[in-house]
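Two records follow; treat each independently.
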Amino acid sequence: MATPLKLSHIAAGAIAVLVGYTSSVAIIFQAIDAVGATPAQAASWMMALGLGMGLTCLILSLKYKMPILTAWSTPGAALIAVGMDGVTLGQAVGAFVFSGLLLTLTGMTGWFEKFARLIPDTLASALLAGILFQFGLAAFEALNTDPTLVLIMGGCFVGGRLYFSRYTVPVCFAIGCLWAWSAGSFGTVTGLNFAISAPVFVMPEFSLQTLIGLGLPLYIVTMCSQNMPGVVTLRSAGYAPPVSASLTVTGLASLLLAPFGGYAFNLAAITAAICAGPEADDDPTTRYKASIVAGVFYCAVGLGGAAVISLFLVAPPALVATIAGLALLGTIGNSLSHALLDAEGREAALITFMITVSGISFWGIGAAFWGLVAGIIVNHVLTTPSRKARRTQENLHLHAAEPNQSHQK
């Protein structure tokens, strides 16, 4: 008998979509403006991005029964926003197609999946904790802007963990919305057009300079800053994600939707953590239903185009920050606990965590990638055979001395 859809599935899927859009839709608008898109083309971009995320979420989650969420490439949008000098819209689309082809080939060859298996679980957990840490911290920083709202939602969260654990996050979200509504914190929206968006095709133009200057960097930042954390998120939640298949699906979506504005799709990390955590469902085998809900919502938002996006933007920032932090609190705690569990790899895990939290960026590649690289190097150096033997000997000496120390006390 099939497990019915739960309220926690619906809440997790809705929160994932809310967080996904409100956290980075402004960057998408900047990218659209940078390419000089017309209003019709801008609506087409939002439609292509929403449908691309929704359909890839549905395909992967239904096929593999895992909470596999996808997302647009946020660093890719930032790259587009600042890298369009002298580039026409057609040339930009050609670069998007080129990047999508590279993403597809990466999935089909399977080399990225082999690389991902080499990452120790402790480093994967540390990386995830570092990625999500800022979202958890933002929930408490929101006390500066709307202390009453945050305290009410925080009190509801603590009470919910005691009395209605399964529904803690959705109840917190509902109470937060009610309070914000009564306090007049929601913005006003005027001039909405709820007509379904129409796709606008832009013919790709292939320029070697644009392919190298925009297409290749778009592929690199999407792989390093987006797909790697996405794989880590699912692994840390206890899943064995189909990495190659996921990259193939998102790469094909990028390839097909690029002429309509779907510039790059990838595995999600932060929103995936919302649907892959215990808040979505106590049973890990049915959490994929939360990502299915998210996929449906993504499709609906995409069909609504820019008009629906504006509805997301009227939500109070403190409400979005608080519900995201509370929804991810358990995942952050579990990731940190697992990352520091093994004394042998604790230093490497801490370095990965702290570099990821630092937010540094080199050559357009974010802190998550550099934290992982540093962690792998340190882990390799500190886990050489001689080091392991020395640490084992030190531990034996410590254990042998413990009875004497206890006796002295």
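The next record belongs to a different protein.
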Amino acid sequence: MPDVNDPMLAPVELPPQVLINWQQAVGLVRSRSTSVASAQAQVAQAQAQARQALSSVLPTLVASGEVERNLLPLRVFNPATGGVQEINTTLWTGGVRLQQSLINLRSWHDIGTSRLQERAAAVDTENAERVALGALADTIVSVITAERVAEVNRVSLRSNLSTLDLTKKRTLLGAASAVDVLRAEQEVASSRASLVTGDEALRRAREALGMALGFPEAWGVAPDIQIDQLAADARSVCSPIQAPEQRSDVRSARMNVDASERNISSPSYGRAPSLDLVSNLNYTSAPQALRPVTWSVSAVLTVPIYDGGILGAERASNEAAAEIARQNLTQVERQARLEATQAQRSVQVAQSNFEVSRQARDIAAESARLSRIAFVHGTGTSFDLVESARRQREAEIDVTIKEFDIVRAQIAALLALSNCNI
């Protein structure tokens, strides 16, 4: 086969960043993934809401002070002289108020609900990590697959350029016609189009990997990364489970149902009386005050009589929210079971497809070899040569994709029945 030189045979430009290993990828996802960070922020929000609910039954201490300056003289009775005395002075007052809830059924009930919501948010973070790892592994496999396809496209273009050069030489010797050259040129043009498409797919795959890692620019994959080792590396941060019902997204949805159903009865507790202990310590500098310092302790009983219907409307809203949570749980359970079933089956399907594709590739390669020999010896046509080369190129690309589909299916099967913690 004659040597050829073409500008399109040059490889795709290298990305600015290269992923070295799986551990580096997990670290970048942990620190830069927006989905994981959002889930962690939701946990912090749930914790703050739980602390807010707890504060309603804890004591509150409030201090206040006031300075009053009488701009007009203050007239007071002077018992010593028996007359009226005008005073133009500044008055100081201050106080401390302590309030402790003794009986507040709704607040105590809401504390338990907020704790359920906090645990559900924590479990939902685990699911966000599982999904992020799945997307990461898929993008890594996609980059490696796109690189292999781009390499196959260049090998195919080189082969077709060699065939074109050979056909032109045969034409000069009278062993081929202009139609044969035209067919070879058409196959070269088709290879160039496939190469351009494949290179763009590689760039987009690298950009998708960069986004999965938390960067706006493209990321490549180091050549020494073992694609077969990805599934084993994923097991280092993911623990297998026995049933889809144990998966983090199902458990989170179930906890949300429990919290929503508990929240239905919250407005009912709002109709119960509440009892607070209130203590006030006050000081005043008013000259007419018989005792500048006062201290009082009181029990305040609050009995709701009519609220305008707000509690009934709140209960109806909570019942609707609970029904939404139940329907979401049903959908998540169905989706988890379906994903687990399809993921397990997809491994076998991917392996079968790879075997079929490999056999088709071997047949196409042998057919292309025989067509080239026949064409060189004058017993074959240019159509047979071009067609066999096209089928060989398609078979090479197909077997490359099918090979990496096995790894992709294995990782999907692992994550479908796993809980991950990065």
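Discussion point: The first helix runs from residue 22 to 32. How would you locate this feature using only the token line?
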